[in-house]
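Example complex used in Figure S2.
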Amino acid sequence: NAGVTQTPKFRVLKTGQSMTLLCAQDMNHEYMYWYRQDPGMGLRLIHYSVGEGTTAKGEVPDGYNVSRLKKQNFLLGLESAAPSQTSVYFCASSDPSRLGTGGLDEQFFGPGTRLTVL
Amino acid sequence: KQEVTQIPAALSVPEGENLVLNCSFTDSAIYNLQWFRQDPGKGLTSLLLIQSSQREQTSGRLNASLDKSSGRSTLYIAASQPGDSATYLCAVRPSNTGKLIFGQGTTLQVKP
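Predicted assembly (230 residues):
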Protein backbone atom coordinates (compact mmCIF):
# COMPACT_ATOMS: atom_id res chain seq x y z
CA ASN A 1 0.00 0.00 0.00
CA ALA A 2 1.41 3.36 -1.04
CA GLY A 3 -1.24 5.24 0.96
CA VAL A 4 -1.73 8.77 -0.33
CA THR A 5 0.62 10.01 -3.05
CA GLN A 6 0.92 13.45 -4.62
CA THR A 7 2.38 14.56 -7.93
CA PRO A 8 4.47 16.66 -8.42
CA LYS A 9 6.52 17.23 -5.27
CA PHE A 10 7.73 20.68 -6.34
CA ARG A 11 6.66 23.18 -8.97
CA VAL A 12 7.46 26.76 -9.91
CA LEU A 13 4.93 28.68 -11.99
CA LYS A 14 4.74 32.16 -13.44
CA THR A 15 1.73 34.32 -12.70
CA GLY A 16 -1.12 33.40 -15.02
CA GLN A 17 0.04 29.87 -15.80
CA SER A 18 -2.14 26.90 -15.09
CA MET A 19 -1.40 23.53 -13.57
CA THR A 20 -3.00 20.45 -12.05
CA LEU A 21 -1.95 18.68 -8.87
CA LEU A 22 -2.74 14.99 -8.70
CA CYS A 23 -3.60 13.07 -5.56
CA ALA A 24 -4.00 9.31 -5.57
CA GLN A 25 -4.95 6.90 -2.78
CA ASP A 26 -5.03 3.13 -2.78
CA MET A 27 -7.04 2.61 0.43
CA ASN A 28 -10.46 2.67 -1.25
CA HIS A 29 -11.41 5.74 0.78
CA GLU A 30 -14.59 7.59 -0.12
CA TYR A 31 -13.59 11.01 1.21
CA MET A 32 -10.71 13.05 -0.16
CA TYR A 33 -9.51 16.55 0.71
CA TRP A 34 -7.18 19.29 -0.50
CA TYR A 35 -5.54 21.59 2.06
CA ARG A 36 -3.02 24.37 1.81
CA GLN A 37 -0.51 25.14 4.52
CA ASP A 38 0.91 28.63 4.98
CA PRO A 39 3.19 30.00 7.71
CA GLY A 40 1.16 31.31 10.62
CA MET A 41 -2.12 30.12 9.05
CA GLY A 42 -2.06 26.41 9.71
CA LEU A 43 -3.78 24.04 7.29
CA ARG A 44 -6.91 25.30 5.56
CA LEU A 45 -9.35 23.21 3.57
CA ILE A 46 -9.65 24.19 -0.11
CA HIS A 47 -12.09 21.62 -1.51
CA TYR A 48 -13.18 18.14 -0.61
CA SER A 49 -15.07 15.20 -2.06
CA VAL A 50 -17.38 12.71 -0.39
CA GLY A 51 -17.32 10.26 -3.28
CA GLU A 52 -16.61 9.69 -6.94
CA GLY A 53 -18.14 12.42 -9.06
CA THR A 54 -18.75 14.79 -6.10
CA THR A 55 -16.92 17.90 -4.95
CA ALA A 56 -17.62 20.60 -2.38
CA LYS A 57 -16.05 23.89 -1.33
CA GLY A 58 -13.98 24.19 1.78
CA GLU A 59 -12.73 27.22 3.64
CA VAL A 60 -10.60 28.83 0.89
CA PRO A 61 -11.89 27.60 -2.53
CA ASP A 62 -11.40 30.74 -4.65
CA GLY A 63 -8.94 30.35 -7.51
CA TYR A 64 -9.05 26.54 -7.44
CA ASN A 65 -11.10 23.86 -9.14
CA VAL A 66 -11.24 20.14 -8.41
CA SER A 67 -12.45 16.96 -10.02
CA ARG A 68 -13.06 13.43 -8.74
CA LEU A 69 -13.65 11.37 -11.88
CA LYS A 70 -12.26 8.22 -10.30
CA LYS A 71 -12.61 7.19 -6.68
CA GLN A 72 -8.87 6.87 -6.18
CA ASN A 73 -7.91 10.23 -7.69
CA PHE A 74 -8.61 13.81 -6.66
CA LEU A 75 -7.26 16.59 -8.89
CA LEU A 76 -6.66 20.19 -7.86
CA GLY A 77 -6.44 22.75 -10.66
CA LEU A 78 -5.17 26.29 -10.77
CA GLU A 79 -6.46 27.98 -13.92
CA SER A 80 -4.50 31.23 -13.57
CA ALA A 81 -1.89 31.04 -10.84
CA ALA A 82 -1.28 34.03 -8.57
CA PRO A 83 1.58 34.70 -6.12
CA SER A 84 -0.95 34.36 -3.27
CA GLN A 85 -1.24 30.69 -4.20
CA THR A 86 2.36 30.05 -3.26
CA SER A 87 1.98 27.41 -0.58
CA VAL A 88 2.41 23.78 0.35
CA TYR A 89 -0.56 21.70 -0.76
CA PHE A 90 -1.60 18.55 1.04
CA CYS A 91 -4.06 15.92 -0.03
CA ALA A 92 -5.78 13.62 2.46
CA SER A 93 -8.30 10.81 2.45
CA SER A 94 -10.54 9.11 4.99
CA ASP A 95 -13.00 6.26 5.28
CA PRO A 96 -16.44 7.46 6.41
CA SER A 97 -17.89 3.95 6.49
CA ARG A 98 -16.70 3.69 10.07
CA LEU A 99 -18.53 6.82 11.18
CA GLY A 100 -20.97 6.27 13.99
CA THR A 101 -19.73 2.78 14.68
CA GLY A 102 -17.10 3.79 17.14
CA GLY A 103 -14.45 3.18 14.55
CA LEU A 104 -11.71 5.60 13.80
CA ASP A 105 -12.12 8.31 11.20
CA GLU A 106 -8.52 9.18 10.66
CA GLN A 107 -7.42 11.35 7.80
CA PHE A 108 -4.31 10.09 6.02
CA PHE A 109 -2.12 12.70 4.41
CA GLY A 110 0.13 12.75 1.38
CA PRO A 111 3.69 14.14 1.47
CA GLY A 112 2.72 17.51 0.02
CA THR A 113 3.42 19.59 -3.09
CA ARG A 114 5.48 22.75 -2.69
CA LEU A 115 4.25 25.33 -5.21
CA THR A 116 5.88 28.69 -5.87
CA VAL A 117 4.19 31.26 -8.09
CA LEU A 118 6.47 34.04 -9.29
CA LYS B 1 -17.29 29.38 13.83
CA GLN B 2 -14.96 26.73 15.20
CA GLU B 3 -11.45 27.97 15.99
CA VAL B 4 -8.55 25.87 17.19
CA THR B 5 -5.65 27.37 19.13
CA GLN B 6 -2.38 25.77 20.15
CA ILE B 7 -0.16 27.25 22.83
CA PRO B 8 2.78 27.62 22.93
CA ALA B 9 3.78 28.12 19.30
CA ALA B 10 7.25 26.79 20.07
CA LEU B 11 8.79 24.82 22.89
CA SER B 12 12.35 23.75 23.65
CA VAL B 13 13.14 21.15 26.32
CA PRO B 14 16.13 19.03 27.33
CA GLU B 15 16.06 15.35 26.52
CA GLY B 16 14.29 13.19 29.08
CA GLU B 17 11.72 15.76 30.18
CA ASN B 18 8.02 15.03 30.27
CA LEU B 19 6.03 17.71 28.47
CA VAL B 20 2.48 18.78 27.65
CA LEU B 21 1.21 20.41 24.48
CA ASN B 22 -2.09 22.27 24.65
CA CYS B 23 -4.96 22.59 22.20
CA SER B 24 -8.17 24.52 22.74
CA PHE B 25 -11.28 24.81 20.58
CA THR B 26 -14.19 27.21 20.75
CA ASP B 27 -17.14 24.94 19.91
CA SER B 28 -17.59 21.81 21.99
CA ALA B 29 -19.77 20.16 19.32
CA ILE B 30 -17.05 17.99 17.83
CA TYR B 31 -17.05 14.45 16.49
CA ASN B 32 -13.42 13.75 17.25
CA LEU B 33 -10.03 15.35 17.79
CA GLN B 34 -6.84 14.24 16.10
CA TRP B 35 -3.19 14.91 16.92
CA PHE B 36 -0.65 14.92 14.09
CA ARG B 37 3.09 15.15 13.82
CA GLN B 38 4.78 16.99 10.96
CA ASP B 39 8.52 16.83 10.29
CA PRO B 40 10.13 19.69 8.34
CA GLY B 41 9.27 19.49 4.65
CA LYS B 42 7.12 16.42 5.18
CA GLY B 43 3.46 15.51 5.33
CA LEU B 44 1.35 14.87 8.41
CA THR B 45 1.43 11.65 10.38
CA SER B 46 -1.54 10.80 12.56
CA LEU B 47 -0.55 10.15 16.17
CA LEU B 48 -3.76 9.76 18.13
CA LEU B 49 -7.46 10.19 17.51
CA ILE B 50 -9.95 10.69 20.34
CA GLN B 51 -13.65 10.27 19.72
CA SER B 52 -15.94 12.78 21.41
CA SER B 53 -17.16 10.13 23.85
CA GLN B 54 -13.63 9.29 24.99
CA ARG B 55 -11.48 10.99 27.60
CA GLU B 56 -8.03 9.85 26.50
CA GLN B 57 -5.99 7.72 24.14
CA THR B 58 -2.50 6.32 24.62
CA SER B 59 0.15 5.15 22.21
CA GLY B 60 3.57 4.34 23.58
CA ARG B 61 5.01 7.45 25.24
CA LEU B 62 2.13 9.59 24.01
CA ASN B 63 -1.10 10.25 25.86
CA ALA B 64 -3.83 12.53 24.56
CA SER B 65 -6.71 13.73 26.70
CA LEU B 66 -9.95 15.40 25.76
CA ASP B 67 -12.23 17.60 27.87
CA LYS B 68 -14.96 18.45 25.43
CA SER B 69 -17.02 20.58 27.80
CA SER B 70 -14.13 22.94 28.43
CA GLY B 71 -12.88 22.80 24.83
CA ARG B 72 -9.42 21.50 25.64
CA SER B 73 -7.09 18.70 24.70
CA THR B 74 -3.57 17.95 25.81
CA LEU B 75 -0.84 15.81 24.31
CA TYR B 76 1.52 14.42 26.93
CA ILE B 77 4.92 13.17 25.81
CA ALA B 78 6.85 11.16 28.36
CA ALA B 79 10.63 10.96 28.51
CA SER B 80 11.14 13.16 25.46
CA GLN B 81 13.83 12.26 22.91
CA PRO B 82 15.58 14.31 20.20
CA GLY B 83 13.64 12.26 17.65
CA ASP B 84 10.43 13.79 19.01
CA SER B 85 11.48 17.16 17.58
CA ALA B 86 8.76 18.16 15.09
CA THR B 87 5.66 20.30 14.77
CA TYR B 88 2.59 18.88 16.51
CA LEU B 89 -0.80 19.79 15.09
CA CYS B 90 -4.19 19.42 16.69
CA ALA B 91 -7.33 19.20 14.55
CA VAL B 92 -11.01 18.88 15.40
CA ARG B 93 -13.73 17.35 13.28
CA PRO B 94 -17.00 19.23 13.77
CA SER B 95 -19.98 16.96 14.19
CA ASN B 96 -21.55 15.57 11.03
CA THR B 97 -18.84 16.73 8.68
CA GLY B 98 -15.74 15.05 7.32
CA LYS B 99 -13.72 18.24 7.47
CA LEU B 100 -10.92 18.94 9.92
CA ILE B 101 -10.15 22.33 11.43
CA PHE B 102 -6.50 22.69 12.37
CA GLY B 103 -4.61 24.66 14.96
CA GLN B 104 -1.42 26.39 13.90
CA GLY B 105 0.78 23.86 15.64
CA THR B 106 3.44 23.74 18.33
CA THR B 107 7.03 23.32 17.16
CA LEU B 108 8.93 21.17 19.62
CA GLN B 109 12.68 20.95 19.92
CA VAL B 110 14.18 18.33 22.22
CA LYS B 111 17.85 19.04 22.90
CA PRO B 112 20.27 16.16 23.53
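Chain A has a mean pLDDT of 90. Residues 22 and 75 of chain A are 5 Å apart (CA to CA).
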